[in-house]
C-alpha cells in the first residue's frame, strides 16, 4: 500500500459529488411534497405534505450548514472559526432519536482547518454506528497543542476496513471514489494543520483521535492505527452525511 496523491480537480469533483449526494435526498422529498400539494385537495394529505416539506427543508439546511464548515472555505485564508458554531451544526446534523451528542469542546476561536478535522471526525464517527448510539466529542490543549478525541458507541459499531489507510493518505486500489473521499479528505486536512490521526475499535466502540504530529512522534506511535476491523466492516454510512 503506497501514499496516494489525488489531483486537485479530482478532489474538488469528488467533494462536490459527496455534498450533492448528501442533500439530494431531502431536496427530492421537498419536490415530492410540492407535487402532492399541487395534486391533492384532501386537507389531511396536504397537511402531511406540508410536514414533509418542512422537515426535509430543515434537514437540507442542516446538511448544507455542516458541509459549509466541514468542506467549504468558511472565510478567508487563515480565518478562525468559533467552535460553538461547529457544535451547533453538528447537533443539527445529528438531531434524531437514534443518536445523542456529548460535546466537551470549549468554545474558542480556532483555525478553520482544525475545526474541519474535528467536524469530519464527527462525520466518520456517525458512519460507524448505523443503528445510532452516542457520539462523545472532546478536546485537550489550546490552539497550537490542541488534540481531539471522538468516540462513537453503539450496537454493532463498525469501522470500514479501508478507513485507516485513507486517513493516512493511502489506498489499496490506487484510486479514491466519492464514497471514500471524506476519509481521505480528513487525513489531507489533518496533515495540512500538523495533526496526526489515530483510529481504534472494539466491541460497540470506535475511537478517532487527532493530536499534534510532534507529540505522536515523541510517543513513537504510528500516525494511523487500526484496531480489530472485521471483513464485515463494510462502508455503510447512515444517510451518507447524517
Annotation keywords:
242 residues; Heat Shock Protein 90; two-stranded antiparallel ribbon; 7 helices
Number of domains: 1
Name the helix and strand elements from N-terminus to C-terminus, one letter apiece: EHHEHEEHEEHEHEEH
N-C termini distance:
30 Å
Strand order of the largest sheet: 3-5-6-9-8
CATH topology: Heat Shock Protein 90
Which CATH C-level class is it?
Answer: Alpha Beta
Q: What is the approximate shape? A: globular
CATH architecture assignment name: 2-Layer Sandwich
**Biggest beta sheet summary:** 5 strands, mixed
- Poorly predicted regions are 220-242
The share of residues in extended strands comes to 15-25%
- Helix-strand makeup class: alpha+beta
Task: Write the CATH homologous superfamily.
Answer: Histidine kinase-like ATPase, C-terminal domain
